[in-house]
């Protein structure tokens, strides 16, 4: 089977491997300590750590896009830094 | 409210009139369509239908559609049954997130996936086969099937499962002998939905086929652009695509309302 | 209330579904991501361009227009179809021969292939041969959906109402028929008015199915492609070019894989976000209502 | 053959549904689990059946540890409160299904089903589907299915709770006879004290996931170890009075004095709860040691042969059960009599310290 | 408040018909006095809920008329009958708080906030709902929900009647006692007409001043709990009321003597001679039988088959030849072994002809 049409590149491969590793880690974590630490945060409904990971990833994607829209000429690493802060916030308060 | 029934009545008329118009057109000759404006055929003809029934490039489209829809329905129901049981009876690592991920695929726009699908199925040598379309439609039909079946299964008390296990039933035997007969209507409704979404979908079916597995709906679009103005045949082909759907509705009419609530009421 | 048991072996029952869906979902998604960062000239020659496509798409007028048209369309569709569907469901007969008649004829549009739906309305609305177009013209109304953007929009919206309101009706009807009679009896005894009955009994009990309806209608209208494409092809001008139509034009018509992929991803993220919001709201409401009642 | 639970606990999340329960069930007798809703009866039965696994402790059957053994291999049977039958099978097939699984010959199946069907008066229903039957018949079908395979352990989880009062009474009378014939271990859960008493056998009272007492039903009724057991196995509700004994006087609310009669003088100074059953409150003096109390009538309920008189005595609600018909107006003040010989006295830990004379004497 | 009169009421769910078997409720006449506490008692499917729904107007009877005082309300819809009804399973408005639920019937009738509030708070206190007054109803337990339903029924002070349809089904035994006596208390306090449907004899007898016993769509007896217990007019009433029910045994009747299983018993009354074709039975409550040591003169020789000690008393099952009797005893110490003598309390021994009570002439 020829996979060249998928046009893999190193950065995208790293990106997907990272996501995959996060999923595996989450699974092992959940298996060792089930329940996912449910709590009711600022969103007023119960979230588990899995939900928080999802909210973090999706939110980060939007932070990057909004950065691109507002400051197309400034390095995206700034957006990355904001996303990191956002992720910490999510894990603390959501 | 004595006039309450008028609301659904008007709505049904609104639904039926365009369909009637299509039927009306399919029974007219092209000459009549373009020359006289009439509410019913002045010069009743079945010639448009004869064109479809005699031309293999037309009727093979129906056969192709039927084949891939059937394959899809069978795959969807068979694979979804155990999965839906697992979701309705057990909790396991990542179950909620898995369920959500499955549902997002129901919501993924086919337009996003059309091109990669073409390349994916070409690369594994399935392009222009019925199985390719059937598999591609699983993308949104399987999650839907799991969702509906899970709803129906949650309505069966888990005490029935337990009684069976206490009685000595092994899981597979229980599932086939007791459980499946009890959700028969749920399976029927699921099959109906899978049929429906596979039958009405065009974009993926058209992308993944060229000649051998080309669905009727794709053939219709081609004919429109080629012959341009053959309204009669086009209408007849359209009418013929409505017939299987109407037949299927007739079979599930008693479960339709519950089915549309995805087993969740 | 069903108390579920923890059983990790249940994964084996889900695995076939997981693999099958993953095959159709993840590989194409990865490919789209790969394309979004590269440019291609013809066969399998790719060049890394970084975020250029994203920047281009985000700042392109064409994308903005398509996006806003899309949002406007979905908003109009929801505001018409949801109340209309609920109203029809409320007026539907509860028993007798009227029930199957209503259910079957209402379900009919849902089983018509989407391009045929387009074809039906294309014919029905034509000024020369269509009942609707002809009648309107006879009445002296200037109606031509191939030239007038307003007429084109109205046609597509009416068509969508024709096509999909039934889904809302059937869902609401299912929700209504699941309310035990005793609730209506209690309301009568409490002297509740028709409005109170709707507000305090029917609406709360329909909440779940209505959310499913909103969710499905939103998603389907957001990715609508076939029907408007058949009727107007995105025209007149670009006035009915929704996101899916734009995307297919770009990817297949112009073979601009990179920008199309980038646009797909943005589109996908928006859908993912909204799906998550709906799903979370839905399952939380579900949890609340599953604890109580008869 | 016996069923033994050794220090069994079941934890779900952070809360204990069952904590540290040890019980030993012998065959032949009917074993009753009595307790209010959510006291852990169902959880306990699920552990016995093998539908759930305990978080701690072991389950032994005939001396063998069966803790991890699958349900299918346990040779148990279970009947639920809801009428659980296989809706797609006829009554005959429902009853026969455990035998079909056990690969028993056709003629024997027919024989055994017919036998158990006649025992439960289902002979004429065998060809029907369960949902065409009345509630009582559906539950009989479920019981028949539980009995037919000759299981070693039969678990019944409030089997009569959803039935009509009279039907319940009839089955309650029949069931012990049917059980006596089979020789299996029967475990029967119920919320109703009167049901436990009518069924006889042995009773384990449950409270918040713990067994408070286990013994022959009538013993548990007459000699409850503690206040909770006494309350659990009492219908109509037990009458109680919290008192303090200080310097040779026994006081309620520090001003109502209770005469020290019978065994009361021997008690050391402390807080106590005096309890006695409604039929041990009287409208007439029967002995000269009886204590007379002024009571305000709240309401009188007459069953035809007996009267329940709800009274208010210095802020405590007591129920008096007298045979015959007695009518009193609301707020009428009457004299009622307590017999100290019928007192149960519980100490500050709610353990029994004084038992009624009549019981202690036996 | 009103007297409720049922005139020739009959109901068939399939519509009017000549076949009596189609009728869930056979022709009946009944009057309910204003302010009385009534119970409709019978097994499931006897038509008691149908009758209740006819009074509240949820069902229009196939035949007959319903009168509130002098007014014919047969065709009047429920909302205009000024009736409160409480159903078997809790009906609460999920989205409202407990307070709003209780206030709903008053609010719909246009009462002002000043009128509603104290009334709701008072009633909530009576029902033990004060702590949850401002929580959403859907988060409560079944017990609490049923209390809300009860509260909605009791909140209006000027209703024609309050109807209860097996309201304690979902309540735990301990709590049943409490709520039942509370209802009775409220009845005495406010004097509502209350009609209580149940299959549980204890509930019916303890609640009502007058009990209507129904069987297969017909009323078999109307009377006070005492009358139903002491003088059942139908063998069904004898069987259905009392726990265990009345002992019924076939017998021969000869003037003032009956012959049961070959043994003669002399009665206190003289009975007229009956036709040969009829079925004659005696009925006697377990409470009115007594056992003494075997071979006591005047007693019938019986074998004890089973003794159930239920704490307060013992239920002894004895066999007189082939016929079983239940006997309620406080003490059994006089009897040793499994043989005993059975004594009838002849003043409480009743004679039934074709299931109906007949009265004799005192000798």
Top keywords for this entry?
heteropentamer, B: 265 residues, mainly alpha, MetI-like fold, 2 domains, C: 294 residues, two-stranded antiparallel sheet, 12 helices, 72% helix, 3% strand, globular, disordered C terminus
Q: How do the strands and helices of this protein lay out in sequence?
A:
The complex is a heteropentamer of chains A (94), B (265), C (294), D (362) and E (363).
Chain A: H1 10-32, E1 39-40, E2 46-47, H2 49-70, H3 76-93
Antiparallel strand pairs in A: 1-2
Helix pairs in contact in A: 2-3
Chain B: H1 6-26, H2 30-35, H3 47-54, H4 56-89, E1 90-91, H5 95-107, H6 110-123, H7 130-154, H8 158-167, H9 171-182, H10 184-200, H11 203-207, H12 216-227, H13 231-251, H14 256-260
Helix pairs in contact in B: 1-13, 3-4, 3-13, 4-7, 4-10, 4-12, 5-7, 7-10, 12-13
Chain C: E1 5-6, H1 10-36, E2 38-40, E3 46-48, H2 52-58, H3 61-91, H4 98-107, H5 114-125, H6 131-138, H7 149-177, H8 181-189, H9 194-222, H10 226-231, H11 243-253, H12 257-290
Antiparallel strand pairs in C: 2-3
Helix pairs in contact in C: 1-12, 2-12, 3-7, 3-9, 7-9, 9-12, 11-12
Description of the molecule:
- The complex is a heteropentamer of chains A (94), B (265), C (294), D (362) and E (363).
- Chain A has 94 residues and is mainly alpha-helical.
- Chain A has one domain.
- Helices cover 67% and strands 4% of the residues of chain A.
- Chain A has helices spanning 10-32, 49-70, 76-93; strands at residues 39-40, 46-47.
- Chain A has a two-stranded antiparallel ribbon.
- The mean pLDDT of chain A is 84.
- Chain B is mainly α and 265 residues long.
- Chain B folds into two domains: 1-45, no CATH class; 56-259, MetI-like fold.
- In chain B, helix 3 (47-54) packs across helix 13 (231-251).
- The radius of gyration of chain B is 22 Å and the shape is globular.
- Chain C has one domain: MetI-like (MetI-like fold).
- Helices cover 72% and strands 3% of the residues of chain C.
- With 362 residues, chain D is α+β, with helices and mostly antiparallel strands.
- Chain D has two domains: 3-232, 3-Layer(aba) Sandwich (Rossmann fold); 239-354, Nucleic acid-binding proteins (OB fold (Dihydrolipoamide Acetyltransferase, E2P), Beta Barrel).
- Chain D has a six-stranded mixed beta sheet, with helices on both faces.
- In chain D, helix 2 runs parallel beside helix 4 (135-148).
- The longest helix of chain D has 18 residues, at 165-182.
- Classes of the chains: A mainly alpha (94), B mainly alpha (265), C mainly alpha (294), D alpha+beta (362), E alpha+beta (363).
- Chains in contact: A-B, A-C, B-C, B-D, C-E, D-E.
- The interface between B and C is large, with 98 and 96 residues.
Q: What profile does the largest beta sheet of chain B have? A: none
Series of secondary-structure elements of chain B, N-terminal to C-terminal? HHHHEHHHHHHHHHH
Q: How would you classify the helix and strand content of chain B by structural class?
A: mainly alpha
* Integer-rounded radius of gyration of chain B: 22 Å
CATH topology of the largest domain in chain B: MetI-like fold
Mean model confidence by pLDDT of chain B: 85
Fraction of residues of chain C in helices? over 70%
Task: Give a short account of the largest sheet of chain C.
Answer: 2 strands, antiparallel
Average pLDDT figure of chain C: 84
The helix/strand order of chain C is EHEEHHHHHHHHHHH
Which regions of chain B are unreliable across 5 or more consecutive residues at pLDDT < 50?
none
Oligomer classification: heteropentamer
